[in-house]
Amino acid sequence: MASSSVNLEEIPSxxxxxxxxxxxxxxxxxxxxxxxIGPPGSGKGTQSPIIKDEHCLCHLxxxxxxxxxxxxxxxxxxxxxxxxxxxxxxxxxxxxGIIDEAMKKPSCKKGFILDGxxxxxxxxxxxxxxxxxxxxxxxxxxxxxxxxxxxxxxxSGRWIHPASGRSYHTKFAPPxxxxxxxxxxxxxxxxxxxxxxxxxSRLESFHRQTQPVINxxxxxxxxxxxxxxxxxxxxxxxxxxxxx
Length: 244
Fold this sequence. Notes:
Elements: H1 13-26, E1 32-37, H2 44-55, E2 58-61, H3 62-72, H4 75-85, H5 92-102, E3 111-115, H6 121-133, E4 140-145, H7 148-156, E5 158-160, E6 167-169, H8 196-218, E7 223-227, H9 232-243
């Protein structure tokens, strides 16, 4: 493996000190290997940075990792790009290989949060086989359970100011003037994915593929079902209880 070309002398002292303090703070923490499962809009993206910081874990979002491996031209990234260029899905073995590689980074020393994988039982089995070779197992699967109707209201009410990324919600966080950004007065848009019709098809495929994955881990007794429709801070409290 090519040695990293980071020169420590080039890194600002403050960054080095912060990283050193972070590692000292993290040293006594127990290892944790977590999987987050939930439909789009269930709040996984909000909770994962909190979990990551509190437990010193690395966040492995498979989509981001694939893109990173492709742009870094790692051997697995090159293979993944070949599949993508042909319009094929990247094989489960490749994705598991990329997770395997990522786990060896210092930031993953205390464990990881897996997000967006496994999506099928076959992927869960492959992941388990790879982890077993590393002497690691999944400790908890956090199931962000939420009613489809609640999600529809959450997602189809979202409006975005494209230039800044500011987001609003017709019910929960409306702009001062409907359809208009509070700061610039420019028009808000709705993302193509944030319509009820698109959400419905995404939820159908989520339930079809992912319910069996939850059942697979339930048999191992490691699934914690969260009430993801609750306010953000209540869900954070639930997560803390489950992981304490």
